[in-house]
Amino acid sequence: MFNGPKVATGYGIDFGDGFLAAARCRGRRCDALPDAGAAASAIAAAQRRGGALVAAALPAGDCTVRRLSVPLRSRSRARRVLSSLLDPQLPFPLESCAAAFSEIRRAPDGGFTALAVAAPRDLLRRRLERVRAAGFDPAAIVPEGLALWAGSVREAPPIGPNAARVALYAGADRWVAAAGIGREFRWSVSTPPPPSAAAPAAAEALTPVLRRLRADGEFRNATLDWRWCGPAVPEDSLLDELRTSIAAERPCEFSRHADGEALLARALARAARDAGAALGNLRSGEDEHPDLAALRDRREKRGWLALAAVGLALVAVNLFGGAAVARRDADAQSALEQAARSVAGTSRVPRGRELAAARTALDERREALKPFVRGTSAVAATSLATALRQAAGQEIAIQELQISDEALLVAGGAPRRAAAEALSAGLEREGWKTALNWTSGAGETGVFEVRGTRP
Predict the structure, then answer these.
(1) CA dihedral in degrees (236, 237, 239, 242; nearest 10)?
(2) pLDDT digit string (tens) for 200-211?
(3) Minimum mean pLDDT among 29-38, 84-93, 385-394: which range?
(4) Tens digits of residue pLDDT in 79-119
C-alpha cells in the first residue's frame, strides 16, 4: 500500500522532558532498548551502514490531522486535489507547513478518503533540533497521536469493528489521548499532565478529552475502552477513582498496556521501517533526510537493472526468432523487410524487428497528428475557450482538463459552488450535457468535477 523506502531495521525514539525511550524493530521482533541514551551512538552507526532508519514523534498539539473525502473515482486525480481540500481546514497557511497524506482508500460511494497531517515547518524544525540534541537524527517525524493509536491497536487489537477506544499516553510533560472506532483513528487531544497525583487533578487533566468525547456523536453512547501507557501512568488506586468518576457519566473500562512505558517508542520503530509513510512523514521536501533520497536512488537503480535484464532477454529471443524466420523462408523475409522499410520510412530495418518498426512508425505518426486534430476540431476548441474563460472569471483553479468531440472532463477547486455551476452552465450552452460533482471544503470552498457528453 505504501511505496516509500523500506528498510530491515527501524528505531523509534520517544523523547520528552525528563524521559527518553528507544525501541528497535527487526523482522517480527520489536523490543525496547534497555538504555536509550547509551544506544544513541550504536543507532547512529547503524544508520551510517545503511538499512536502518529512525523515527520520532511531533507532539500532538503541534500538528493537525484531518480525514478528507474526495468524490473523484481516479486515485491519481484524487491525490492531486488533496492539498486543495486540506488548505481551508488548516489554522495556518499551507505554504508555511509540511503536509503528508496516508490511508488513501476507496470509499463506499466510489470516491476516496485520505488521512491528512500537517504542521508548521518552524515547529517541525524545532522538534527536529531537540531530538538531534539528544543524539538522534530521525528520517521520519510523524504525528504523535497517530503513532500512539497505531501502537495501541496493534499490541491490543480491538474486540470488534465498532469498539470505541481511547489510548492515553501519560508522560511527565504531557498527556495525549488518541480516540478511534475499531482500528480506525478519529482524533487526538494533548493536555498538560496533572500537577499532583490527587484524583481531582487527574480528572481536571482529562477534561479536554471528555469534552471532545461528549461532542462526538460516534462516542456519545459507546462503552469506552481506556488503554493507558507511558512512563507516568497513575497508580491503580488513582485509576480506579478516575474510572468510577467517568463511569458515572458513561460506561467504561480501564486497563494498562503490557510494557506500556515503551509502547510509543515501539510504534515509532515500526513506523521507521517504511520511513513513516503509513502514518504520514512530515520530514519531507526541503527538510527531507538525505538517507531517504539515497534509498530511493538505490531502489530506482535496481528497477532499471531489472528492466535492462528483461530487455536483453527480449532482444535475444527476438534475434533468435528473426534468424528462424530467415532460415524458413528467405523470400518471405525479403518481402517483409521491404514492406517494413516502406512503412517506417528508413533504408534499413533489423531482422526480426520488422513488425515492431512498422508499429512504432505508425504510432509516432498517430501521436504527432493528435495536436493538429484537436486544435482544428471546432467543438473541442470552442469548449476549451469556454472552460478557460469561465475559470478565469470565477477564480476557479483547473487541475485537470480533457476535451474531445464526444466527451469532456474538467476538475479542480472553486471558491464556491456557484462558480462551478456557472462553469457547468457555460458548457451546457455550448451544447454539452453536463453533470457536476461537488465536495465542500471549509467555508464555501470545495473541489468539483464536471463531466460532459454530446447529446
Answers:
(1) 170
(2) 999 999 999 999
(3) 385-394
(4) 999 998 998 888 888 889 999 998 889 998 888 999 999 99
Same domain, residue pair 44 and 126: yes
Please list the residues that pair with 55 across neighbouring strands.
12, 140
Transcribe 311-380 into DSSP letters: HHHHHHHHHHHHHHHHHH-HHHHHHHHHHHHHHHT-S---TT-HHHHHHHHHHHHHHHHHHHHHHH-HHH
If one counts the domains in the chain, the total is: 4
Q: Are 114 and 78 in contact (CB under 8 A)?
A: yes
Cα gap 445→430, rounded to integer Å: 26
The candidate with the shortest Cα–Cα distance to 171, out of 283, 11, 377, 14, is: 14
- For residue 178, the Cα-to-chain-centroid distance in whole angstroms is 19
In a domain, 152, yes or no: no
Which residue is associated with the grid cell 482508500? 105
Which CATH number do you get for residue 393?
3.30.70.60
124 and 9 in a common domain: yes
According to DSSP, the β-strands at 224-229 and 252-256 are parallel
81: left (phi over 0), alpha (psi -120 to 50) or beta: alpha
Q: Tell me whether residue 363 is in a domain.
A: yes
Task: Specify the amino acid at residue 140.
Answer: A
pLDDT digits (tens, 9 = 90+) for 214-249: 999 899 888 899 999 999 999 999 999 999 999 988
Residues 215, 318 within the same domain: no
**Is residue 299, in this structure, part of any structural domain at all?**
no
**For residues 435 and 453, what is the distance between their CA atoms, to the nearest angstrom?**
9
CATH number at residue 190: 3.30.420.40
Alpha-carbon distance of 314 to 327, in angstroms, equals 20
Q: Are residues 277 and 359 in the same domain?
A: no
Task: State yes or no: pLDDT of 361 exceeds 70.
Answer: no
What pLDDT was estimated at residue 298? 60
Pair 268, 243 in one domain: no
Distance CA 183, CA 181 (A): 6
